[in-house]
Amino acid sequence: MDTRYLTYILTIAQKQNMTKAAEELYVSQSSLSQYLTKLENELGTPLFYRSRGRLSLTPAGELYVEAARRVIGIRDNLYRSIQSLEKRGHITIGVTSQFGLEMLTELIPPFKTCFPNVTVEITESNVPALTRLIKEENIDCAIMALNDTEAFDQEQVDVLRREEVYWAIPRSHPYCAKNPGRPITLEELGENFHNDNILLAKKGSTLRRLADQVTEAAHLTLTTVCETNSIIANRSMVAMGIGVTLIASSCALDKEHVAYYSLIPPITRLNAFVRRKGWVMHEPEMDLRGRILSYFS
User: Fold this and answer.
1) Range 163-268: architecture per CATH
2) Interatomic CA distance for residues 70 and 76, integer angstroms
3) What residues have CB less than 8 Å from 159, skipping those under 6 apart?
4) What does the pLDDT look like over 157-173, one tens digit per residue?
5) Burial (0-12, 13-18, 19+ Cβ within 10 Å), 121
6) Threshold 0.90, pTM exceeds
7) Which pLDDT score, from 0 to 100, does residue 185 have?
């Protein structure tokens, strides 16, 4: 089933730029432009508005893209159904956090023992990127750290657990002598950490949203040393005494050099399994999903 040209339009719609779409598709820009022009002539209406190098969907384009996604979804489900007859297949799964990688490291070997002919492709990215991939049906599912599940329909999400997030500071910090392990109130944050640097996750991440909420509630205005989505980098810099940060319990390691404090009230994030709409699950997909859902139990 050749859906190549449908993919062309979907990629143009995603990139909103002919040059970037051509690079993504590994075709020449002229060929891609000619195909789009030919298609629009056949339809008798433009699919994209052209404005200063930016392409945005017209109402007709939105209808075409919606239909193209449905057709590709039908193709994918057909191929999966055929592959499932011989327990073959390809599952694409995204992860946003260290806990997801650790989970898959444990789950995939026994899964492959049961389904040796099923390939599992893992994409590691941030929440906004994986949310977009799920909505565009470019990956099957994702293990995600979320603040909430509002971006998805209820039937797409299985909440795995609610994970506590800690205030992480260097063991050398004077506050450690004052408070060896008792939870910290927001008032105490404001009193004891106003001179510290803070290491932030990038905007759009669960930890960044929580950090913004906590510092605002505690009336803390801290100097930002860096912004990164690498928990390992932030934790290492805390251990070296460079600054303070928020770290989820699944990543609360190196306790010899980093002290972790619960907050009052506690702050948490969700660990969730999210699947794309229309994902038809056969035996391998259902088995992997079952392993993920039972992981924390």
Assistant:
1) 3-Layer(aba) Sandwich (3.40)
2) 10
3) 149, 270, 271, 272
4) 999 999 999 999 999 99
5) exposed
6) no
7) 93
Q: How far apart are CA 233 and CA 221, in angstroms?
A: 22
Q: Which residues pair with 144 in a beta bridge?
A: 272
And the tokens for 125?
Answer: 């990215």
pLDDT digits (tens, 9 = 90+) for 236-288: 999 999 999 999 999 999 999 999 999 999 999 999 999 998 888 888 899 99
* Rounded CA separation 270/206 (Å): 9
CA 128/CA 222 separation, integer angstroms: 25
Classify domain 87-161+271-293 at the CATH class level.
Answer: alpha beta
Spatial neighbors of 232 by CB under 8 A, at least 6 apart, are 98, 251
Kindly state the average pLDDT of the residues 83-106.
Answer: 83
Residue boundaries of the structural domains of the chain: 4-79, 87-161+271-293, 163-268
Task: Report the candidate in 250, 243, 247 with the shortest Cα–Cα distance to residue 220.
Answer: 243
Q: Which token pair is 287?
A: 């088995």
> Could you tell me if 202 and 229 are in contact, meaning their C-beta atoms sit under 8 angstroms apart?
yes
For the domain made up of 4-79, the CATH class stated in words is mainly alpha
Residue 277 one-letter amino acid:
K
Q: Does 4-79 match 87-161+271-293 in CATH topology? A: no
